[in-house]
Amino acid sequence: MKIRIDKMLSNIGLGSRSQIKIDAKSGCIKINGIIEKNSSRIVDTEKDEVNYKNNTVKYIQYIYLMMNKPQGVVSATEDNYDKTVVDLLDEKDKFYSPFPVGRLDKDTEGLLILTNDGVLNHNLLSPKKHVDKTYYAEVDGEVTEEDVKLFEEGILLINENYKTLPADLKIIESGQESKCYVTVREGKFHQVKRMFLAVGKEVKYLKRISMGAIDLDETLELGAYRHLTEEELKKLM
Predict the structure, then answer these.
(1) Catalytic residues
(2) Which end of the chain, C or N, has fewer beta carbons within 10 A?
(3) From-to residues of CATH 3.30.70.580 in the chain
(4) In the UniProt record, does the keyword rRNA-binding occur (predicted)?
């Protein structure tokens, strides 16, 4: 990407363009090892090495984050009443204005991707893509093989004339309280909870553990996040 030095440095939060212009005249900027006093010079972010105040600067256009979303936090960039997932980010990452890819309910935990890449966001959420999303669920009620078959056929949601796409239901434990994995291929509002309600069960705890080819990093504590690895990003793409 070709961009002016002052714009590049200001875009990643290193100062205002007017301050960077002053710093350039003071010899604080080097391009490929040579002092550059013209802050309007165009650089190639893929080829040129930019050094600012003795630190090599890498320009990032897009940011890709994996968060282990906690309960009580909403999947939004801002909210008048509740803390949002963006509120959990460091200032250096907030700078890039990332937004959650899709949403998890306020009381649902687990994997949430945040990015400022609109194309990736569209590809992951497009109904035509049918990206798998897998959840771990603890359910009040006995989940049976009959429920597994019903999920495979698609569930007609209560109070809505809509039948879901086929979903995979895998029983871990079955009893008065059941544990299971559910994989859906769409993102209807409260979908997993509503699917269980339609078969007479109530979800008590829900955690998303994967989205597409990306699995939740279980070493992430609730509310923690990290940048996606190159390998994970390739899988998403």
Answers:
(1) 105
(2) N
(3) 64-127+217-236
(4) no
Which segments in the chain show pLDDT lower than 50?
none
Tens of pLDDT, residue by residue over 36-82, are 999 999 999 888 999 999 999 888 788 999 999 999 999 999 988 99
- Give the per-residue pLDDT at 96: 83
Is this model's pTM higher than 0.90 or not? Answer: no
Fold of 64-127+217-236: Alpha-Beta Plaits (3.30.70)
Q: b/e for 164-198, b at 16 or more Cβ within 10 A?
A: beebebebeebeeebbbebbbeeeeeebbbbbbbb
Angle at 154 between CA 150 and CA 158, to 5 degrees: 90
Please identify, in words, the CATH class of the domain defined by 2-57. Answer: alpha beta
Boundaries of CATH 3.30.70.1560 in the chain? 133-211
Name the residue type at position 197. L
Among the listed residues 49, 25, 55, the one whose alpha carbon sits nearest the alpha carbon of residue 39: 25
pLDDT for 133: 95
Architecture of domain 133-211: 2-Layer Sandwich (3.30)
